[in-house]
Hints:
By secondary structure, the chain is of the alpha/beta class. The chain has 2 domains: 53-127, Alpha-Beta Plaits, CATH 3.30.70.80; 130-491, 3-Layer(aba) Sandwich (Rossmann fold). It has helices at residues 22-27, 32-42, 70-80, 103-111, 134-138, 159-163, 233-242, 274-289, 308-319, 409-426, 432-441, 462-466, and strands at residues 59-64, 83-87, 94-98, 116-121, 124-127, 130-131, 168-178, 217-218, 257-264, 271-273, 294-299, 301-302, 323-327, 362-368, 387-390, 394-398, 402-407. A 7-stranded parallel β-sheet has the order 8-9-7-11-13-14-15, sandwiched between helices. The protein has a 4-stranded antiparallel β-sheet with strand order 2-3-1-4, covered by helices on one side. α8 runs parallel beside α9. Bound molecules: calcium ion (4 copies).
Amino acid sequence: MSTDTPVSTHTVAAHMIxxxxxxxxxxxxxxxxxxxLLCVALSGAALAFAAPVGQVPDExxxxxxxxxxxxxxxxxxxxxxxxxxxxFKSVPDLHLIKVPGTAARALAHYGASPDVLYxxxxxxxxxxxxxxxxxxxEADPGVWGxxxxxxxxxxxxxxxxxxxxxxxxxxVVVATIxxxxxxxxxxxAANMWRNEADCNGNGIDDDGNGFxxxxxxxxxxxxxxxxxxxxxxxxxxxxxxxxxGNNGIGVVGVNxxxxxxxxxxxxxxxNGSLAAAIxxxxxxxxxxxxxxxxxxxxxxxxxxxxxxxLRDAIDAHRQRGILFVAAAGNYYQCADNPYECRTDTNxxxxxxxxxxxxxxxxxxxANSVNYGFLNAASGRGRRTVHLAAPGSFILSTTPANTYxxxxxxxxxxxxxxxxASLLKAQDPTxxxxxxxxxxxxxxxxxxxxxxxxxxxxxxLNARGSLACASCSMLTRRKxxxxxxxxxxxxxxx
Length: 493
Ligand SMILES: [Ca+2]
Ligand SMILES: [Ca+2]
Ligand SMILES: [Ca+2]
Ligand SMILES: [Ca+2]
């Protein structure tokens, strides 16, 4: 019996920076037919499917105090007229529930109970990057983030120098929490993680992990187990982490060899939800518990609302030794989307989530340009953002065997995730703390004029981290920042 259920979303326009996304919308490859066929194939398998995007479900996340009896939970649910949509394994006592009427009433109802640790509304989350203006792209030499011909700076991560040490390992698994991955892409397919025990499309949960036919991961935003990318963002992120190296095709990832797990929390239009993100984290934790060597998750997305449930789900990854690499956010988006307007790029002053969570397994990543300083739209913070990585005009894989240039902290983040997996490949005995320390201690470079905007003050350097046998570890601590006060003021269209 599958426990997978759809996790719904509100409709909110995706974040965009520096140029509209006309190109991306044109490039989106909608696999509606494929999905429809899959839905038919799975329809007898106790799998429910998502409501169409745009419908606004009234859902809340409730975490009960440990020890609250099932009877007391059921009494509360019944009084609210609520139905339980999903329970999470990695965060005990957390329920996603659907309520009649407004979520506000449910928040008050559950919030008043002494049995409830917290209650939050499920809400929309948007993507963090879009392709840039092709006119700029034509002037760019290509995969500068990995290796550039120095003109004014050497702002790449020293890929070739790192690849003299290691090019990665197929024993290392990285999970992307994004719009999915085109797992058939010519330059990604060989590096996809596969759950071989359930890679058969037979409508049966063969490995008993609670998910039917989860071959490459799952897609909670669609309520099924097919994380195929019908957007493009997630495929681009995946290529930066691990497009196949030295195969004479396309591009090359930070890792030439790695295994990429995919969890789809954003739909074809870039709309995601808090509950889908938590469902992805829960799935990855379940697979880690079942022995899959997940080293890190890549999280190229952000949310302006604090969530205790999301924090708990990331903390469950810390307990399992999984790093959480997060985008620091892209701002200055007022012209494109006034409803999302934020001009303050400083995450110390104005927090963004999940990058600002004060958890030791979180690494927050800013976006640097090929001159070495930060992209003007990039999130930053002396106390909250750890390091910068190349994130501007980054060439990587996009669906249907295509390649494209995207910009954003979304593109910087997978460079860091890629180096995390290189470090694990170099020495499989390293735990998440050692990998994190080597990433931060191996940084280098001059960010002028953004010298004082990051915890490390520096940029990712793969060679620096891999060759960092005895360099000093980072000891500076992040200062806790207060949870957002706007957690209940939800946007919707
Ligand atoms: Ca270099
Ligand atoms: Ca399964
Ligand atoms: Ca199966
Ligand atoms: Ca390649």
